User: What shape does this take?
Amino acid sequence: EEGTFWLEKALHTYQTLNLPHHLALTYLDLATVYLNTGRYQEALPLFQDISRVWGKLNNLAEQANVFNNLGYLHHLLGHYEEALELLGKAHDYAQRSGYIRIIGYALSSIGDVCTDLGTLDAARKLYIAARTVARSINEHYLLVYIELALAKLAAMQADWSSVFTALDAAGKLVIDRHSSSEWGLYQFTVGYCHLLQNKAKEVMASLSD
Assistant: This one.
């Protein structure tokens, strides 16, 4: 709470001094805090404000980053149409500005939305495209995330060979790193895939009775 208090103080100062660049960066820090703590309705207008500031400054790269965050936020809120529109804009602005990292994250996030919508073939193609981008710049976290997303996607289709190929690839990426978030994501996905596999075995057993 103390951190948000001082960020809000900084916002007021930069508004008074009319420093739009500093204002946008502070908005972004505060919006990210709200996003990461589940305060989605508070984060939403802040990201929208940031987008307007970067738009006035004609900063395409920062706009791409904000559109990506907004798309992710709308996805969390279940606003799939809005999420796809914003993530598409993030990809477009990232391409126009040469912001390769956001191209990869936008493709991956669009793949997440497609997964939730049940368009699994489209999701797989998007994840593979995002993986190519991530490999080109060695974006490690995104590589881990994509391999795990591909594992979950394969598990949803009971393609167990592909599941464990993707899990093995992800495991090799996290094995020598001391990242609790990556290990947590890996462990969660392994558990998720095994649960789906066990359910599939139960269904097959019931069909054979």
Q: What stands out?
A: Residues 10 and 180 are 31 Å apart (CA to CA). The chain has a mean pLDDT of 90.
